[in-house]
C-alpha cells in the first residue's frame, strides 16, 4: 500500500494566493509609473512634429497654388499664446478672425503644448517663388524640443531641429 505524504484529507489548490496577487499588482503598478513619463514625452514630440510638418505642407501647397492660379499668395503669422498662421490672398489678411481672404488657417488650439517662438511672413509670387525666405520655429512644452521650418530660395520647405529631436536633421 502506498502512502501519500502530508496530512490526510487535505489537497493543495492550483490557484494563486492573495499575497502572490498583491505582489503581481505592485510590480505592474511600478512598471506603469515608469512608462507614463515616456508616453507623455512621446505625445509632446508628436504634437510638435505635427505642427511643424503641417506648416511645411501649407507652404508647399501655397507655392503650388500660386504657380497654378497665377496669383500671389501670402502666409501670415500671429504669435503669442493663441498663435496661428493663414494662407491668404492678401498680406493684410490675418489669421485671428475668419475672413474671406483666407484659404487655410491653423491655430494653436490644434496642437496643445506647442509654442510658436518665431515666424516670418512670406509671399509666393505668381510663379510660385517666395519673395523672402520664411523661418518659423516651434517648441514643444512637454519635451523641450525645437523644430524649425524654413524655405529655400526656390520655395521648397525644409524641417530641421535645434535640439537633437530624433528623426530630423540638425539646423
Helix content: 25-40%
Task: Give a short account of the largest sheet.
Answer: 4 strands, antiparallel
Coarse morphology: elongated
Low-confidence stretches: none
What does this 3D model show about the protein?
- The protein is α+β, with helices and mostly antiparallel strands.
- 30% of the residues lie in helices and 25% in strands.
- It has one helix at 18-69, and strands at 73-78, 84-88, 102-107, 114-119, 122-124, 135-140, 146-151, 157-161.
- Strands 3-2-1-5 form a 4-stranded antiparallel beta sheet, covered by helices on one side.
- A hairpin with a 5-residue loop joins strand 7 (146-151) and strand 8 (157-161).
- The protein is elongated, with a radius of gyration of 28 Å.
- The chain starts with 17 loop residues before the first helix and ends in a 10-residue tail after the last strand.
Structure, briefly:
The protein has 171 residues and is of the alpha+beta class.
Please specify the SSE layout and strand pairing:
Layout: H1 18-69, E1 73-78, E2 84-88, E3 102-107, E4 114-119, E5 122-124, E6 135-140, E7 146-151, E8 157-161
Antiparallel strand pairs: 1-2, 1-5, 2-3, 4-6, 6-7, 7-8
List keywords for this structure.
single chain; 8 strands; alpha+beta; about 170 residues; 1 helix; four-stranded antiparallel β-sheet; elongated
Amino acid at each position: 500500500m502506498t502512502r501519500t505524504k502530508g496530512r490526510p484529507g487535505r489537497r493543495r489548490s492550483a490557484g494563486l494566493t492573495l499575497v502572490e496577487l498583491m505582489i503581481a499588482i505592485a510590480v505592474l503598478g511600478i512598471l506603469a509609473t515608469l512608462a507614463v513619463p515616456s508616453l507623455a514625452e512621446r505625445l509632446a514630440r508628436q504634437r510638435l512634429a505635427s505642427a511643424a510638418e503641417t506648416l511645411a505642407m501649407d507652404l508647399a501647397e501655397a507655392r503650388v497654388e500660386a504657380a497654378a492660379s497665377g496669383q500671389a499668395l501670402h502666409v501670415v503669422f500671429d504669435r503669442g499664446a493663441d498663435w496661428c498662421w493663414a494662407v491668404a490672398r492678401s498680406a493684410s489678411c490675418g489669421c485671428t478672425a475668419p475672413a474671406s481672404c483666407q484659404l487655410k488657417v491653423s491655430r494653436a488650439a490644434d496642437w496643445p503644448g506647442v509654442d510658436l517662438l518665431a515666424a516670418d511672413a512670406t509671399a509666393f509670387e505668381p510663379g510660385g517663388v517666395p519673395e523672402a525666405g520664411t523661418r518659423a520655429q516651434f517648441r514643444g512644452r512637454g519635451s523641450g524640443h525645437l523644430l524649425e521650418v524654413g524655405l529655400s530660395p526656390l520655395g521648397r520647405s525644409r524641417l530641421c531641429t535645434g535640439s537633437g529631436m530624433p528623426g530630423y536633421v540638425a539646423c
